Design the sequence.
């Protein structure tokens, strides 16, 4: 059908390609953007490394973390506000006081790109002795990490007009740490949205429209 026509003319192929791109852009614009995917790739608490007996470690109240942020939109860049990271100690700690925090400056991330943010954080108020007793015992202790920022997607058309869509990005995850001082889970720990993000659910519903558009252009 259209394939034979396509073989005849390069111009036709190009039209189909452009129509596909337009369909993708329209799809993104009407269905909302997917929030960036955030995960904790590394988490290390020197004090809880039971194999290290040195006094420098017994007075070390820092924790180290390595955060990964991925822009899941294939065509649109995203601007992050200052990325605020807060840490808590213990399970069910969403209501407890933070033991530490860190803030990364705002930055821009191109479509499909990944970024890593690492830092050493000074902590306050962790019951170190009790935590240490637990991990020495072979059990684990739980930390919680919370991330808070705003993600703004900017899409610009050829005539220079730009539209902006801003979403609150508030996510968190529990991190279990054992006597190695590292997180138990060897893989990255994916942060979950604190509240359900409604723009995810409506996406497949709108998928039909750009597909229809695509084939309309194809057969004109
Ligand atoms: C650490 O100290 C404990 C007792 O204080 C001792 O039993 C253990 O062997 C020490 N570990 C190392 C690696 O020095
Ligand atoms: C724990 O401390 C020991 C001794 O200093 C060190 O060799 C080891 O790499 C540390 N563990 C981790 C997970 O960093
Ligand atoms: C605490 O431990 C970390 C990791 O081993 C190290 O980079 C940092 O310099 C230490 N901080 C202090 C105050 O000893
Ligand atoms: C967490 O805290 C809430 C409110 O304080 C409580 O209702 C809930 O049972 C707690 N969950 C766990 C697992 O402790
Ligand atoms: C962040 O930590 C600092 C101390 O390092 C503290 O003064 C400040 O209140 C904390 N901010 C939040 C939002 O927890
Ligand atoms: C130590 O572990 C026990 C059970 O495994 C738990 O009830 C307790 O809260 C833990 N203590 C700390 C300080 O994490
Ligand atoms: C040792 O582990 C057990 C469970 O594995 C826990 O109930 C107990 O509280 C732990 N002891 C200490 C001193 O944390």
Sequence:
């Amino acid at each position: 059908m259209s394939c034979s026509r396509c073989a005849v003319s390069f111009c036709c192929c190009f039209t189909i390609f452009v129509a596909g791109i337009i369909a993708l852009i329209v799809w993104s614009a009407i269905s909302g953007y997917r929030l960036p995917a955030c995960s904790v790739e590394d988490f290390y608490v020197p004090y809880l490394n039971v194999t290290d007996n040195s006094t420098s470690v017994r007075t070390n109240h820092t924790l180290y973390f390595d955060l990964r942020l991925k822009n899941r939109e294939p065509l649109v860049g995203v601007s992050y506000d200052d990325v605020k990271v807060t840490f808590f100690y213990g399970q069910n700690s969403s209501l407890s006081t933070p033991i530490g925090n860190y803030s990364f400056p705002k930055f821009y991330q191109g479509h499909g790109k990944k970024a890593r943010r690492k830092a050493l954080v000074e902590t306050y108020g962790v019951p170190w002795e009790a935590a240490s007793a637990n991990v020495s015992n072979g059990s684990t202790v739980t930390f919680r990490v919370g991330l808070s920022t705003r993600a703004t997607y900017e899409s610009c058309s050829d005539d220079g007009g730009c539209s902006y869509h801003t979403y609150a990005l508030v996510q968190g995850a529990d991190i279990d740490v054992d006597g190695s001082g590292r997180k138990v889970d060897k893989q990255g720990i994916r942060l979950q949205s604190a509240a359900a993000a409604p723009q995810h659910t409506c996406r497949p519903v709108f998928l039909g429209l750009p597909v229809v558009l695509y084939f309309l252009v194809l057969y004109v």
